[in-house]
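quick one if you have a minute, typing this from the bus. below you get a single protein, a line of residues and a line of whole numbers that encode the local backbone shape. could you go over both lines and see whether the tokens make sense for that sequence. anything you notice is useful, everything is just below.
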Amino acid sequence: MIRILFVIILITLTSQLFSQPFNSEEKKILEAQDKRDADAIIKMIEEDEIEDSKLIEKALISLANIADTNSCSVIMKIYNESNDIHIKSAVAFALGQIPSAAAIKFLRMMEQKEATQHAYKRIAIYKNILNALGKIGTEENLKRICKLEFTNDSLNGAIALSIARFGMRKIKSKDAFERLKKLTYSINDENQKKWVTYAFNRIGDKEYLKDYKKELELLAASSNVYCRMWAFSAMGKTADISYPEYIMAKYPAESDWRIRVNMLNAVGNLSPDESSLSENYFDMILHSAVDDANPNVSVAACQNLARICNKLAKDHAYSIKLKEYFENYLKPDRAIEPAVMNEVIVTLAKIFKDDYRTKLFQLFSQEEGYDTKAAIVAAFQYMEKPMVYKELRDSISTDIQMYNLIHPNNDGSMIGSPELAKVYRAFVETLAALDDKLDDENKNTTRLIFSEFASSKNTAITDISLTALTDSMYSKYWNETGQIMTFDFENFEEPKDKDVMIMYINAWGTLKTESAIDILKKQLNSNDYEIAKASADALKQITGKDYIKNIEVSKITTDFDWKFINNLDNKKIATLLTNRGNIKIELFPNIAPFTVQSFIKLGEKGFYNGTVFHRLVPNFVIQGGDPLGTGYGGPGYSIRTEIAYNTYDSYYVGMASSGKDTEGSQFFITQSPQPHLDGKYTIFGKIKAGFEVVDKIQIGDKIAGIVFSDN
């Protein structure tokens, strides 16, 4: 019976993902959601404009998006007046998105009531209640949940995930870990048991974890990929020095690259020495660093070899072996994945530091590719003698002069080309890592370099430079820095330089630059809300006065193109054409209509053509969609966050943001389940084909374009 219920729920939720024409009431609800107008939705409910159960469910999800505490009473009333499973589940979901004492109190009442009313038959409701309490509940709620007893694996899995959500908010206890221990043995379904492992790992408290070695090892032997993945990760948080050998003994048998990444990271976290990691197992990691079929595993191996060898002496046998092995792969005739080569170079610099300085300069002069040149420049940040920055600056200048002979800079811009931007960015990153070791005279020199690069109009370089200039070590120059910035600001154009303008405005607030007050007051009249809001915030920091009321422009640009949204049947699939192969995305227009609309419209006008994947965290996400390729760019407007029931499982597509309602064009794809993203980031699709491409994408890989189709 329970399985039948699950199938019905799954079919219902899945059917909602495909494009269906929205009726007038749905449109009204969604428009109110996008305008963050809770009163409009409440009015529709109270005046019985919404009677259909699916519409009520949609209204509840919209109220969850708005998250206005004033809507809690209406949400509670809906629960009391309904016996519909989907509506009651939506009530729990909505309250879990509205942190408040009233929501917590009502969720607890719901939990107690549903527990006495055949919870197995109402499993979807109960799971949503546990999930919601995990998101906003108190220590008392956690205590109550730890005492719950079920024989149903799905409900017990929900208890484990709820405990994990409490732990994400630093609410944890010995009772919670004991409950997880008990669930390790009582849950038979390995797919549900994975949430026990997730909870152990996500809470990650070594003082607790050390008492559950037997359970972690049992979970690491599970047939479930995610059970093993999170179990090995949890082992790396225990500080148990016996684990490196244990993990590496299991390593050869693991075929899933995600688990291998977590195993390597766990060993690196434990920073073993030769007594806790034999030469045989060290060699395994060494071979993975360049020979693994998946570049993510190789990069993880390099990063963790650096952590291991940094604990040892530079002349230790392991370090020497690593150097010989790695340098063999840096020879011109060796074929190696560019991302792996770059990590190999950085690893050598991390371990050997100034002893590797001469070799780095040699590599820089020989290298032709600017991705690797940038990696070499970034490697200098690990030097212990900071004066190397001068020689590095001279080497870069010589290289750029040669570059400009072949590729003349005809537009007069400071950066000149994307290739040079990579090197300049690496240089300012290195400078920012070294400047605190310099004497006052050289600090002043680096300050002037940062000031020059701050005006480059390259968002990443400007951000690094301004972050350095606003550091307290440069406080005696703050007045002069602020003055220089006022002259630079005259050369910026809106909207082209919007992101750089906001960085300058924020920096003025930090520096308390009084000479920028007139400029900031002028920017209150900007047609861009983000610029105006940043200016008001900066003015408050400088003057102590509130200027928010002076802003007239709307925060969000709306686009209720219902004709477009209702005719997406032939655009259900978005195929990303990348240099590593195609990735097919099944879009969710009925879950996130305005996000899907924006994504398709941008894609159809070629916005994504030639963009790169600029961010990668192995076994977490790959991220792209930034026209600048730096993580700072967007389409010039923001759209609303659109959350719903769906959760971040493996290979789901979500919108990147810097906070609620700041989404633009950047998107990410998960490589494994990421429950901590649920209810925070818009999910607007899932991968239908090209999983192996997602697994091998590296930073700098390109999207040639996006093709939309019906299958």
